[in-house]
Amino acid sequence: MSDSLETPLSKVKRGPNRASYDKELALEIIDAALMCHVGQTKNGQVFVTPTCHWREGDYFYWHAHSKARNVKGPIDEPEKVCINVSLLDGLVLARSAMHHSVNYRSVTLFGVPELVEEKEEKVRQFELFLDKVSPGRWETLRPVSDIEIKATGVVRIKIEEASVKFRGEPPIDDPEDYNWPVWAGVIPLERSWGEAQTDPQQNENYPAANTPDAF
Amino acid sequence: MSDSLETPLSKVKRGPNRASYDKELALEIIDAALMCHVGQTKNGQVFVTPTCHWREGDYFYWHAHSKARNVKGPIDEPEKVCINVSLLDGLVLARSAMHHSVNYRSVTLFGVPELVEEKEEKVRQFELFLDKVSPGRWETLRPVSDIEIKATGVVRIKIEEASVKFRGEPPIDDPEDYNWPVWAGVIPLERSWGEAQTDPQQNENYPAANTPDAF
């Protein structure tokens, strides 16, 4: 059993039988997904912003234009944001409408974003991000410029207050419904990387980039 | 040009060149996705909850246990929630780290949730939901019971305040980088429904359920 991420805030109120606070499991789901949804408020109004994330150790990172809402916000007014990372894994088709569900993996994180400001550290984080998106690609790219480093905000939260919810099993019907004459089961959602589409503006032939393990 | 969903709140501040307020486009993206992320606050803390959604006409629907956070909340204190629907379509791999991106379709909606309370209307909405998840399945299921109808909350917002953001093109590099010796282009993310996994507790053979057009 690894560290627990349970706190009064991260404790799951609904469907606690599908909840976990196991840190290793949370990290695994975070790494398996490319995108997350960041929730925060501005003048009392909630906003949800989809963005790509990466992780190093116990920290969850995302980036945006230095002036974007989900980077600038935390400087204006420290707020505990809520971030959800979800992967839909399949449809769960039961014998009654009520017991239909989906199989999924989901992590909900809470934390006050910290801005990463030190230049070398920002560049190191860009490299880790690129490495997640396309392993080995960083070294082959035109190096980053000072202007680009300044223009890109990097923020992180420590992964210490979170919950995991997951479902990965056949439908669970009411006992008296198992003989209802209809197919029941799971239809898995499959993800894969398709054929690389070379930029039409590219004249030379180079081997296509590596694809990530995350989706 | 269809109706515009632009309001001061839904107006996109960052990357307005990728923004649209076209209602038809928003509806198309909403229908293409099975899952959304609902953002709302409770006692000043923001929460982001992934859930499945469906649509009828100008209304965006979701459901949850009658006592769940994203159904009960709106009754306690009317709040304009923010809902994001996103589909990741591919990796955009440029010649510099800075111009890496993703292709995606995304809709951000705002609205005060209304609870659907009338029994027949709730059942009609369950049917529309099932029809999205597995066309034609509703009629084959064990009919819903009164207890199930009571236990399932249905909420909706009118689709009238929203923005669309999308990207669906090759990388756009700085002009001087186009000869940098590295592959650049798009790697599309492909989704498909895998082989149906029959419930191990099923003894009879029935044809597997239909799969949805949404992912």
UniProtKB/TrEMBL annotation, chains A, B:
<protein>
    <submittedName>
        <fullName>Pyridoxamine 5'-phosphate oxidase family protein</fullName>
    </submittedName>
</protein>
<feature type="region of interest" description="Disordered">
    <location>
        <begin position="193"/>
        <end position="215"/>
    </location>
</feature>
<dbReference type="Pfam" id="PF12900">
    <property type="entry name" value="Pyridox_ox_2"/>
</dbReference>
<dbReference type="InterPro" id="IPR012349">
    <property type="entry name" value="Split_barrel_FMN-bd"/>
</dbReference>
<dbReference type="InterPro" id="IPR024747">
    <property type="entry name" value="Pyridox_Oxase-rel"/>
</dbReference>
